[in-house]
Amino acid sequence: MEKLMMLGSVQGATAIAIGLIIGLGAIGACIGIGIMGSKFLESAGRQPELIPQLQKFMFILAGLIDAAFLIGVGLAMYFAGGPLLNTVINVAG
Amino acid sequence: MAAEHAPQSASEYISHHLTNLRVGEGFWTFHLDTILMGWLTGIVGIGLFYLVARRATTGVPGRLQGFVELVVEFVDDTVKSMFPGDRKFLAPLALTLFVWILMMNLMDLIPVDFVGRGTSAVGVHAWKPVPTSDLNTTFAMSLTVFLLTLFFSFKAKGAGGFVHELFTAPFGSNPLFWIPNFVLNIIEYISKPVSLAMRLFGNMYAGELIFILLALLGTSWKWMLPSAVLYTGWAIFHILIIVLQAFIFMVLSVVYIALAHEHH
Fold first, then answer.
1. Which sequence spans correspond to the domains of chain A?
2. Distance in Å, alpha carbon of A71 to nearest chain B alpha carbon
3. What is the 3-state secondary structure (H, E, C) of chain B?
4. Which listed residue, B47, B62, B147, B248, has the most CB atoms within 10 A of its CB?
């Protein structure tokens, strides 16, 4: 019973952690892309002849902004596989 | 072979599709599937460009040669805008990076169960088809780019100039600033290859995981059609991500090497 409670608490904590990592990362990434997109649209409206060059930089920036978020998603998915749980199982027997 | 797959739980399905084919143990483990797929995609991608270059005509080009010329010109223009100096080494490096990473990322579009059923039919128990979703590949490439950055730094500034810039770079040459300058430079030198590698890894790993989860959704008859639709939609979106990530890796490598060339 004790072991079950221990395993349950590790699972629960892992699930909350995954949710926090992905959720907080998504907030930052989406706000960042929103601000960048709005600036792009503004400057595209001001100088339409520069749209191709600005679009190239916009894609580069989108990739950079998404980087930290996706690194977080990758890490969270790694934890979802259960390495913390496996450690507990190995130690508890 | 079907009996192996039938009574699997969901998490077993997911973790089966996310394990690499491992050979050896401890420090000397090799991910055989990553190595083989890396070689295969490299040979196909670069080999295609080489074959087209060998038979290139100056007259009206065919479609394949037109496409290759498009890619080469695109990479050359990008390198030219980031690095105004002599790009005889840098542009081919950028082209290799772009084409190879693009080819490796394209393996992600192969449906999940094609790979799983196909490889277990031949007797292989685990196979991940995307080399760039393995941290080893991305770190190998980004560490190579980092070493090239250091090499070009030494070449452009000399050993003395390099050490001088290490200690005086952002703030100034007042001896009070030496430690903060050094710390900032070390952080910059570490964060560049790590971020380069993990950006590509995170994108590809997350993409592959979402493919697997969407495929898992189709195990019951009620959810099979939504699963197929979502899978296709995500695959179409992923085409953009694939090209974008290869492009970003190339652009950032060129920018880092270009930055290493300039001195104050």
1. 21-82
2. 5
3. CHHHHCCCCHHHHHHHHCCCCEECCHHHCEEHHHHHHHHHHHHHHHHHHHHHHHCCCCCCCCHHHHHHHHHHHHHHHHHHHHCCCCCCCHHHHHHHHHHHHHHHHHHHHCCHHHHHHHHHHHCCCCCCCCHHHCHHHHHHHHHHHHHHHHHHHHHHHHHHHHHHHHHHCCCCCCHHHHHHHHHHHHHHHHHHHHHHHHHHHHHHHHHHHHHHHHHHHCCCHHHHHHHHHHHHHHHHHHHHHHHHHHHHHHHHHHHHHHHHHCCC
4. B248
